[in-house]
Structure formats: C-alpha cells, structure tokens
C-alpha cells in the first residue's frame, strides 16, 4: 500500500495535566480474525497523531499506510487508554460468545509496556477504543480503494465515492483530511464522470467544513 502523510503537529496533554515529552507513548492495536477481510490488522498511534496501518507483518509486498489523526481524535483515543489504566488490567469477559476477532491493546512508553488481549470485553471503554480502531481500519480501506480505483478504473470512481459518503454520513471516518488531496484531484480530472467529479467536490467541501468546526 502506498503511504502518504499529511503534516500537522499535535500537542497532547494527559488528564493529569502533564505534557508528554518528545519520547511520548504510543498505542498498539491488532485484530486477528481468520475468514474476515482483511484477516489481520495492525495499527500504531503515537501521541503526536502519527499513525501506521498494516495488514501484514510478514508479507514484503504489504507496505504500511501512514496517516495523521486530528488533535481531538488523538485526545479521545489516549483518554480511553488512560481510563483503561494503560491496559494494566484484564479486559476479556470470558463469556461464551462468537469469535469477534482476537484484539490486542498495548501501551508503550519508554520502559513501560502493558498489554491485554481479548475477544469480547464487557468494559464499555474497551469497546469504544476498539471501535476507534475499527473506524481507522474502515477509513484506510476506503482510502486505499479510492486511490486504486482513481488510478486504474475511472468509471468505477463514483461507486467508491458513494461508499465513502455512506461511511462519512455514519460518522465512521477518522482523520478525514487525508482524503482531500485525492478528492481534489478527482474533482479536477476530466477523464472521470461528471457525477463522480461533483461528488468528490462535495465530499471535499464537507470535510473542510467539518475541520473548520473542529469536529
């Protein structure tokens, strides 16, 4: 996967009021679910908003996708991790439920390293944090699909944009700013159907408006 990064710097302050230093923490997340697509996802989010998404750690052809979260998104993710005591306590419910994927949360900062694995948790904050990473996964999948379609299948661009719009309207996108360069390019591409160009311009406008509102 091709990696791109939008540049901005986030200053994040923990709930105790202390600013993290340059060697601040990062949160590791993975989800393993054979039969799903993708069957494996790995995401690392740094306190300054930098993020890396991967679907394999062994396939040399699988390139990591870099992204950058908005400040309020970073704050919410790390706030949930703090509420979960930096993953010092078990999260697995041990209930007999369907296989929802083995999820791993890991806090890494200097010599600190705390990790929990679970299929299903009764802890609402753990479920909220897992959903944040599910949204990141959904967002990156949209981005990769749109990049590929815009390059190799211009007639299919509108369908992919419609799928992106549906996720946006359901508030499933994270770091939506990363779509702006591609949406602007599609909107200006005369080889793309007018319907798709109009939709791309509309989505870009919505993203810019939401960024202006601080959402």
How would you describe this protein?
With 215 residues, this protein is α+β, with helices and mostly antiparallel strands. It has one domain. The chain has helices spanning 71-83, 124-152, 157-169, 180-187, 194-212, and strands at residues 26-32, 40-46, 50-54, 65-68, 102-109, 112-118. A six-stranded antiparallel sheet has the order 4-3-2-1-5-6, with helices on one face. The relative contact order is 0.13.
Features:
six-stranded antiparallel β-sheet; alpha+beta; 215 residues; single chain
Q: What's the number of structural domains?
A: 1
Instruction: Tell me the number of strands.
Output: 6
Spatial order of the strands forming the largest sheet: 4-3-2-1-5-6
N- to C-terminal separation?
A: 28 Å
Q: Mean of residue pLDDT?
A: 90
Number of helices: 5
Q: How big a fraction of the residues is strand?
A: 15-25%
Q: Order of SSEs, N→C? A: EEEEHEEHHHH
**What integer value in Å does the Rg equal?**
18 Å
Shape field: elongated
Helix content: 25-40%
Helical/strand content category: alpha+beta
Q: Note poorly predicted spans.
A: 1-21
* Sheet with the most strands, sense and barrel status: 6 strands, antiparallel
């Amino acid at each position: 996967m091709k990696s791109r990064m939008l540049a901005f710097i986030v200053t994040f302050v923990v709930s105790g009021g202390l600013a993290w230093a340059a060697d601040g923490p990062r949160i590791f997340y993975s989800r393993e679910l054979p039969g799903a697509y993708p069957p494996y996802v790995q995401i690392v989010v740094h306190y300054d908003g930098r993020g890396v998404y991967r679907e394999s750690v062994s396939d040399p052809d699988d390139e990591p996708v870099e992204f950058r979260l908005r400040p309020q998104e970073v704050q919410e993710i790390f706030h949930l991790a703090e509420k979960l005591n930096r993953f010092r306590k078990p999260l697995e419910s041990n209930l007999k439920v369907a296989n929802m994927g083995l999820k791993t949360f890991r806090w890494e900062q200097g010599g600190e390293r705390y990790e929990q694995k679970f299929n299903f948790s009764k802890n609402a904050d753990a479920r909220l944090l897992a959903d944040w990473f599910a949204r990141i996964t959904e967002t990156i999948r949209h981005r990769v699909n749109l990049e590929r379609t815009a390059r190799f299948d211009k007639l299919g661009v509108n369908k992919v944009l419609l799928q992106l719009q549906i996720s946006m309207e359901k508030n499933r996108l994270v770091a939506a700013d990363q779509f702006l360069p591609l949406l602007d390019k599609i909107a200006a591409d005369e080889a793309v159907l007018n319907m798709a160009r109009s939709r791309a311009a509309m989505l870009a406008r919505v993203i810019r408006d939401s960024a202006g509102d601080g959402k």
